[in-house]
Amino acid sequence: MGTEKSRKLFEDAKKILPGGVSSPVRAIKPYPFYTKKADGSKITDIDGNEYIDYVMGYGPLLLGHNHPSIKEAVTRQLDDGWLYGTPTGLEVALAKEIIELYASIDMVRFVSTGTEATMGALRAARGFTGKNKIIKIEGGFHGAHEAVLVKAGSGATTLGTPDSAGVPKDFTKNTLQVPYNDIEAMTEAIKAYKDDVAVVIMEPVLGNIGPILPEKGYLEEVRAVTKENDVVLIFDEVITGFRLAMGGAQEYYGVTPDMTTLGKILGGGFHIGVIGGNREIMEKISPAGPVYQAGTFNGSPVSMTAGLAVISTLRKEKVHDRVNKAGDLLRSGLSDIIADLGLDYNVSGVGSMFKVFFGDMPYNYQEALKCDTNKFNEFFKKMLTDSIFLPPSQFETNFLSVAHSKDDIEKTIEAYKRNLK
Ligand SMILES: *Cc1c(COP(=O)(O)O)cnc(C)c1O
Q1: Domain endpoint, select from 285, 315, 345
Q2: pLDDT digits (tens, 9 = 90+) for 81-90
Q3: pLDDT for 335
């Protein structure tokens, strides 16, 4: 089947939406497909083509599209209205669940997106310490706000320059970046500005550039050096939270930060963000303390309901056992193909995250940049024609959901084999 309807719609869209889309990664070249509906592991476009989906909303849909338990819970909530501007029992119930699962979290503030979560967490950490500088990991993504939109490629102790027009230099000068898996660089950056480093924010697994996994001992070393220097450690688990384990990467790797941000999976496809942390820091947040944070949609009854349904479904359906096994199956199948074809490519991933790097296995952002992106882009298009929807970039993680069947995985492995050739 063709994609003529999508092509036409994109022509219209380009005139009235910047770049034709509502978020940049969706601007697939030469034009994206427009979705009509999705169910389970499949997504169907307006021309009637059906794809096996490994984008999964860029992470949230660990339970697959259109999961009946989430739909049922949200529909039930809609009968009672969907925005009150008052507290609800739902937010108290969901907070209790999260606190029980995440060792680093004694209290939470619910927001609407991961962007708001990291923005609020950084503000809380700065308010708590009274210091200014933040350290992030090169290639780590924490949403689209000023302090974290910093250009890659400078040394550990050089001050950040903006990676977006419209961000004044003054807004990024307090952001330092260090390479992932490099404890010396992080230690050097902390020591260089010893009296002014408030916080280290990092994805425990670099999910927005791969995935790239932590080397053995790295997260423990980060925990140690931040603790020694009174620097708040934030794990941004917007991707890994509820994915690697119920308790996220911090449970999976056994390393406990001071604060945690969550989002994506917890909302089951509805918008959610969580600022979580230890009591001392969280009590700085307004109205308990002086760090301002507010939002019309904070604690949205629909998102809270979805969150409670996600957690109970993850438990009831033993989702992690199943989806992580599927991940192992897929990764080993892909590794076999690459070995058979004699390619110098590498399969990265953990749990339900995976990616074929078109080059050596990277351990940080600069290494990932060496991959053959032209070859990848060609491959991506072939896979799409073969009804497999992968994230359209060498640097975006592929996500499995519990809805992906053995048959889906076999078809996917076959398609990789055909198109890698
Ligand atoms: C997606 C993402 C965010 C931003 O979340 P939004 O809901 O898109 O604002 C922040 N941090 C990480 C690690 C993410 O993957």
Answers
A1: 315
A2: 999 999 999 9
A3: 98
